Amino acid sequence: MAGVIALIYFASGTVFFTRKIRLFAIVSSFILYVALHIAAASALLTGLLLACLLSTFVILLTLKRPRDKKAVLHFSLPCWLLIVSVIYDVFVSQPIPAY
Predict the structure, then answer these.
(1) d(CA 60, CA 29)
(2) pLDDT tens for each residue of 4-60
(3) What b/e readout covers 67-99, taking b as 16+ CB neighbours within 10 angstroms?
């Protein structure tokens, strides 16, 4: 599921914001995949990440700004989502007991 969401994120961002395939868009999609893969253990965190992605996408579509500025925010959002996922994984999720 994480791979499909990252691919849709890449395709929609490329079509609506940059209209070119750029390296930062590919790296951003990979970072989103990693963030969703880490968050897959928690349904609540995955839902919050997806809600954040969708709301940001809708807000960016309605803003009257140049495409480049929208693309920077759209493709930097997965970095913040990865930070949140790692913090959740380190501090909140239950550790697996070693036997």
Answers:
(1) 17
(2) 999 999 999 888 888 888 888 899 999 999 999 999 888 899 999 999 999 999 998
(3) eeebbeebbebbeebbebbeebeeeeeeeeeee
Instruction: Tell which residue, 82, 70, 79, 93, has the closest CA to residue 16.
Output: 70
Task: At 43, list the tokens.
Answer: 């349904």
Q: Do 33 and 3 form a contact (C-beta atoms < 8 A)?
A: yes
DSSP code of residue 13: H
Distances (CA, A) of 68 to 16, 20, 24, 77: 11, 11, 12, 14
**Which residues have C-beta within 8 Å of that of residue 21, sequence separation ≥ 6?**
14
